Amino acid sequence: MTEVKLDLFRRFADLATDALASHREEIDALNVFPVPDSDTGTNLYLTIAAARDRLREFTGDDWREGLRAFSRGALLGARGNSGVILAEIIGALLRRLAQGLDQERAAAVFADALRNAANAAYAAVGEPQEGTMLSVLRAAADEAETCVEDETAHTRDVMSAAAGAARDALSHTPEQLPALAAAGVVDAGGRGLCVLLDAFETALTGRRPSPQAPAASTPHIPIPTGLGTGDEHALEPGGPAYEVMYLLDADDAAIPDLRKSLQPLGDSLVVVGGEGIWNVHVHVDDVGAAIEAGISAGHPHRIHVTHFAEQIAGQAHRHANRSGRAVIAFAAGPGLAELFRGAGAIVIEGGPYRRPTTSELLEAVTASGAEEVIVLPNDTPTRQSAEAAARTAEDDLDISVAVIPTRTQVQGLAAIAVHEPGRKFDKDVLEMTATARHARHGAVTISNTRAITMAGPCMPGDALGVLGGDFVKVGQDLEGCATYVLARLIGGGGELVTLVSGLEDANGELADAVATWLAANHPTVDVMVYDGGQERYPLLMSVE
Fold first, then answer.
1. In angstroms, how far is CA 135 from the centroid of its own chain?
2. Are 365 and 375 spatial neighbours (Cβ–Cβ below 8 Å)?
3. For residues 523 and 237, what is the distance between their CA atoms, to the nearest angstrom?
4. Which of 35, 121, 145, 532 would be 336's cystine partner, CB 3.0–4.6 Å?
C-alpha cells in the first residue's frame, strides 16, 4: 500500500499541532458550551500534542504500531470534554485505517474511517448534542461517503470534500445550539475539528486547503457575573460545579455499568478507550460519587478535578500573583535530578524512554508561579516539546519562557552553573545559552545490536564512544573508549572536565579510572565527578 505511509501521519501530527497552536486563542474565545471556561482550543492542542509526542517516540517500522502509539498518546493525554472526544475520534479512525489500508481501496477506507469515528464519538458521549464537533464530524463523514462513490476519487479528494463539508456544517452550528446563537459564535470544538481536517488535507497534498475557513466570530467572552461570590452556578443556571477526569484501568465489561452510575450524577459524560485503559470525563456536583463510580469499575488514576467558578474567575487575574524566575530541567537520572535541584531548578525526571510531554512541561511552567521561566530540555526530542510548551505559556499566560538549546544532560549542568536569577532575564538566558554551546560533550555506551557506525561496524556488547552526538570509536572496553573520547574533547582546550557516572557505573569505577587518566595526562585541568544514575550511558563527559 503506497498511498499512505507512517510518514503521512508524522506530517499530520506536526501540522495539526502547529495549526492548533496557531488557532488556540481563537478557539478558546469561541468556547461558550457546555461551560464558558475558554479552554477548548487549549485542550484540543494539548491532546494532539500528546499524541504527536507519543508518535515521535515510536521508532519501529510497523506503521500499524505507529498509529497505535499515536492513538494511545491522544487517549492518555486527552484534556477536557473536547480532548476526550477527540481521543475517541482519533482512536476509531486509526483503528479502521489499520484494518483496511493494505487490502482495500485507500479512499474508501478513509471515508469509512471517518464514519467509524463519527459513530464512536456519538456513542462515547452520554447525551450527544447537535451543533457541536459531533455534528460537524458527521457532516464530514457524510460528504466523504458521497465523494468515494466516484470510483476515480483519491484519498486527497475524499479528505478535501470532508474538510469542506465540516466547514459548512460549522457555519450552521449557531442554528442548532441556542447558546452559540446567543453569543454570536460557532462551536469551538467544531472549529477545532475543522482545523484538524484542514491539517490532514495539507499533509496529503502539501497544499493549504482552499478556501480557508473564516475565523468565524471570536469576540471576547466576558466572565459571567457572580463568579467568586459563592454563586458557582452563575456560569449556567443549574449546571454542575466541577469537572472530573481520570484514567481508568478496567475491563471492557465494566464500562456499561460505569456509564449508568455516572449518567445521573451530572452532564458532559464522555467515556473513551478500550483494551483495559479508559479516559473518563464528567461534569458533576458530587466529586466523590464520580470517583467512587470509577473505583467500583476498576482502578482510577491521574484524577483531575476542576472547579469551574475558580477556573473561569482565575482567567481574569491569572497573571497577578506571578513573580520571579524559575528554571525547569529535564533530568535523565536520580543523581542528575539532585544536581539540578541543588542548583535551584524545578526537575522533571525521566529517561531515554520516559521523556516529558508538551503538556507535562506546560504544567511545570504554569505551576512554577514565576513570571519568567527558563527551560533546560537536555535532550533533542524534549527540546521540541519544550518549545511547544513555551509558545503556549507565552500566548496564554503571558509568561516569558526561554528554552536553552541543551541537547545533553552535561550541557544542562553547564548552563545552570552560570544561572543568576538576579540579573536581567535576557542576559541570564544569553549567558546560559552561550555556556551550554561552548560545553563540548561526549559519552560512552554499549551496543545492543549489530550495526554500521561512522567509526566502523559494531556488534552487540561492543563499547561505543560518542562525540557531539556521533559515534567515533568502537572498542572492547568502556574505559578505552572513554579516554579516547575525552582526549578528543580536551584536544580543543579546556579548563574543567565534568564526568557523570551512569546506572551501569553505579560504583564509579569507570569515572574514577577516567579521572585518573586525566590527572596523569592533563594535570592542570580540573575535574568534577558526579553520580548521575542515567540509563544507557555509563559515562557522560563535558569539557569547558
1. 27
2. yes
3. 76
4. 532
Strand partners, 527: 497
- Return the amino acid letter for 178: P
Q: Please give the grid coordinates belonging to residue 312.
A: 473561569
Extents of the domains making up the chain: 1-216, 242-316, 325-438, 440-543
| Sheet containing 372-376: order of strands | 346-349, 325-331, 372-376, 400-403
Give 75-103 pLDDT, tens digit per residue.
998 888 889 999 999 999 999 998 887 78
Cis bond upstream, residue 222 (ω within 30): no
From 206, 214, 202, 128, select the one nearest 167 (Cα to Cα): 214
- Which DSSP string do the residues of 352-373 spell out, in sequence order? TTBPPPHHHHHHHHHHT--SEE
> Which residue type is seen at 242?
Y
Strand arrangement of the beta sheet that strand 299-307 belongs to: 266-274, 277-284, 242-249, 299-307
Range 325-438 classified under CATH 1.20.1050.10: no
Length of the chain: 544
CATH architecture of the domain with range 242-316: 2-Layer Sandwich (3.30)
> Residue type for 87, please?
A
| 317 phi/psi in degrees, rounded to 5 | -140, 35
Quote the cell numbers at residue 319: 497573571
Give the C-alpha separation, 541 to 409, whole Å: 10
* Contact (CB, 8 A) for 282 and 266: yes
* Distance (Å, whole) CA 542 – CA 234: 58
HSE, CB side, 13 Å, CA atoms: give it for residue 188.
Answer: 33
d(CA 275, CA 256): 15
Q: What is the CATH number of domain 440-543?
A: 3.30.1180.10
> What Cα–Cα distance (Å) separates residue 269 from each residue in 324, 345, 462?
40, 39, 54
Q: What CATH number does domain 1-216 carry, 3.40.50.2300, 1.10.606.20, 1.25.40.340, 3.40.570.10?
A: 1.25.40.340
pLDDT digits (tens, 9 = 90+) for 136-191: 999 999 999 999 999 999 999 999 999 999 999 999 999 998 888 888 888 999 99
